[in-house]
Amino acid sequence: MLECDGEIVLDSPVILRWIDERFPDPPLWPRAQPARAEADVFVEWFNLVWKRPPNELADELERPNPDPALVASLGSRIASLNDVFEGLLAGRDYLLRDFGIADVVAYPFLRYAVDRDADDTELFHQVLRDHVSTEGRPRLAAWIDRMGQHPQA
Q1: How many Cα atoms are found within 13 Å in the side-chain-facing hemisphere of 146?
Q2: N or C: which end of the chain has fewer CB within 10 A?
Q3: 24-59 residue pLDDT tens
Q4: Rounded to 5 degrees, what are φ and ψ at 9?
């Protein structure tokens, strides 16, 4: 939630768009319409498709008797979705060519592929640590490293 001058803005992507409109330098969203639409599609996909299996898995693991088949299926789904990022990074440094909203939206989640903070016991973070992997995904590993060093990330 963001509150500014009495205005309340909910949902992370909506907040990021609000920030981008008021502080456009450097831009998070591309200015050219086709690239902007591509970024919108990515953000929507990430929030509705990619984040769903980790959230469902965390919910299932909180149950007194998690269903092992469902746990395995969701874990497998997360792993297969990670391959999308490896593909997006072929021949480029950032998810949608230039640094922008796709990187800002995905990095806080994908970084758990390399984050091994033993003091962080948040179940959702553990799900990400267990199922987001850079193994066999050198472009994703390099992107996570690049993003961790990026001054705007």
Answers
A1: 15
A2: N
A3: 888 999 999 999 999 999 999 999 999 999 999 999
A4: -125, 130
